[in-house]
Amino acid sequence: MREAEPYDVPVTVKMRMGIDDGHLTYLDAGRIAASSGAAAVALHARTVSQAYSGTADWSAIARLKEAVTSIPVLGNGDIWSAEDAVRMVAETGCDGVVVGRGCLGRPWLFADLAAAFAGRSERVRPTLGEVGATLRRHAAYLCDFYEDEAKGCRDIRKHIAWYLKGFPAGSTIRHRLALVNTLADLDDLIADLDPAAPWPGADAEGQRGRSGNPRRVVLPEGWLDNPDLTPEQRALVAQAEDDVSGG
Ligand SMILES: Cc1cc2nc3c(=O)[nH]c(=O)nc-3n(C[C@H](O)[C@H](O)[C@H](O)COP(=O)(O)O)c2cc1C
């Protein structure tokens, strides 16, 4: 954070509750982040060993909000709808929410959140035709981003099941969609979807993306002996790849 200071870039911190129930570090970590200059702190209210199993413990978000008073505290975990987000803020007092899996195949969730926090009841409930158009636009953005149509199309494959969740799209078309190589392929397949099929309601809502079982956390030798890092441990942290944390 100190290294970022000259660039005037706000640095935010996101964390889990701790390694496991016996090692809950989020209150200390939140206070340290605040006193070190973080612009905001976000908590995914699960431990590392929980992985994506069980449910997020929103009461921890409330405790963090009480402990960290000088910067915004954002809550995260199991927000699947705008109503969940409003409920999290009401139950925990957090200043904002972070959405993870809930927006997979559902980018309009953010419009729902904006409406809900503005006190409006309208929600985006797209037809299959609108979902197909959104999926197509998402694929085009990916191709632009990667400057590579084949790569963009490979990437969009994993989103397709999330976009179609609950809609009447048979296994054949889902299978073909999951093998698209070009935007032209995608156009042909989207053309086979029934554009008038309405939003399927509850079947399209709810959990999506990763779930799963608790995991055994493996820590570097001596990691729990002392809360202060040795120079060797510091070097280890500096080398760590951030993608091993898995959020
Ligand atoms: C596609 C995807 C990418 C993610 N990438 C990150 C990441 O780079 N860093 C991080 O801290 N968490 C990451 N997460 C975890 C989420 O930010 C979030 O903490 C977690 O999914 C729990 O929230 P949820 O229950 O709303 O999904 C990612 C989650 C998803 C689904």
Structure commentary:
The model has no long low-confidence stretch (mean pLDDT 92). The protein has helices at 26-35, 58-67, 82-92, 109-117, 128-146, 149-164, 171-177, 183-191, 231-239; strands at residues 12-16, 40-44, 73-76, 96-98. The protein has two domains: 12-122 and 210-243, Aldolase class I (TIM Barrel), CATH 3.20.20; 128-198. Helix 5 (128-146) packs antiparallel against helix 8 (183-191). It is 40% helix and 7% strand. It has a four-stranded parallel β-sheet. The chain contains nine helices and four strands. It has 247 residues and is an alpha/beta fold. Flavin mononucleotide is lined by residues 14, 44, 76-79, 98-102, 209, 247. Residues 14, 44, 76-79, 98-102, 209, 247 line the site of flavin mononucleotide.
Question: How much beta, percentage-wise?
Answer: 5-15%
Order of helices and strands: EHEHEHEHHHHHH
Strand order of the largest sheet: 1-2-3-4
Q: How many extended strands?
A: 4
On the 0 to 100 scale, the average pLDDT is: 92
Instruction: List the domain count as a whole number.
Output: 2
Bound molecules: flavin mononucleotide
Q: How helical, in percent, are the residues?
A: 40-55%
Annotation field: number of helices: 9
